[in-house]
Amino acid sequence: MSEHLTALDATFLELEQADESAHMHIGATMVFDPSPDGGSPSREELCQHLSRRLRQLPRARQRLSEPHTGGMSWPEWEDDPAFDIHRHVARAALPAPGGYEELQEWVSGFFSQRLDRHRPLWEMALVEGLANGRWALATKTHHSMVDGVGSIDIGHLILDVTADAAPAAPLSPSFASAPSGAHPGPLASLAHAWAGLLPVDTILHATQMGVHGALHPREALRGAQSALALIVNEEVRGAPRTSLNGPIGTRRRFEVVRVGLADLKEIKNSLGGTINDVVLTVTASGLRALLQSRGETLPAGGLRAMVPMNVRAASEHLALGNRISSLFVELPVTEADPVLRYHETVARAQSLKSAGEQAAGTTAVIELAGLAPPVIHATIAQALYATRLFNVTITNVPGPQQTLYALGAPMREVYPLVPLAAEHAVGVAAASYDGNVFFGVVADRDTVPDLEVLLSAMRASVKELLSAARADGVAPAGGAP
After folding, report:
1. Among 90, 158, 170, 383, which is 20 to 30 Å from 333 by CA?
2. Residue 153 — very low, low, confident or very high, per pLDDT cuts 50/70/90?
3. For residues 52 and 60, is the Cβ–Cβ distance under 8 A?
């Protein structure tokens, strides 16, 4: 069986075609304790484990009918007659001592390589040689593939909720769905789910969006007006120019900042706001320090972050999938006081959510883009990721707060990857899992040799906010998640 790509699927292929520095795969690195029999599973055991479960993800055996988009019709997903799972699962061994630095150096290289469009668009690597008998799995899946199969990708297939799960009983789709109102993944502004091993909801396809507009012309007209207003506004008042937004290379550097989920909850419970506000503020603090260290003038209006959000109306509660878009949040990087910076971030994010106009405008842009023919859609796709719209992508995805397993081994950490579009040198994805939050920070290796400045400032920001929260004394009752 074959199926045409939607316009939204094709967007990520087009972004790669337009600039070789853009890598549109999502991904993650999962770190496991030794298997029950000690050490790590073999590559063959992993391949057999995946093979038993691939029926739950038919797209994993499909490739593009054409490796490039263009013309008057989209490529199709078609069965790959030469599919061989061994071509998609590699084995790697870290040099001694197999610590964090050796792992991240290897992962950085893995994430720097594009997927082969002549094969099904996913890869996985079994990484051995970690200290204390640990092992890891690194995965990457093209964003054009993920939405086509809903919220489950290759990474989900290997995870179980118990150590002794049956071979054909992987993590269920219901468990893999995020709670209602959770923030979707990094590129959700184009109505895609980020399913790279992290809980997300399924969403509507672009064709469904087009039908919605045709059946509700007045609503579509209002949406188009909002979209035009947004475009005009961003053209006149675009994102500030900084060293974060210029030509980048193809090599990535991937690092992780680890913090306790309880610490972030303590901050938001005491100072107000949400976990997402803490994530935004911590990232803003890192970006502030990075620009200052480079001697740049901090933009008075703030750095603009693209932040996914759910825009489903109450009347659509039982409808298939989510209506999702993005907020463009101005991060107050000029504010020197860490607590005032946090409160300003909370206020700006809440103001945008309350107004709703920006989200309606970006949703309308998505719907209109979905109606464009392939021959001109690439131009729209590039416009949606132009540096005039945003400086950095920041996503926060709530994950399961229980231990998951693969081949009987408990997963201890998960490091999420957000793609970098052209001329965007830094991206941040935060994922909570089993009592911790992992900030996956990806950067262009050539233009951000000073990434450690950002990482150190992010760690310091958590300590500053936590200290302020404890000095504040009484935490307010309740609080958003």
Report:
1. 383
2. low
3. no
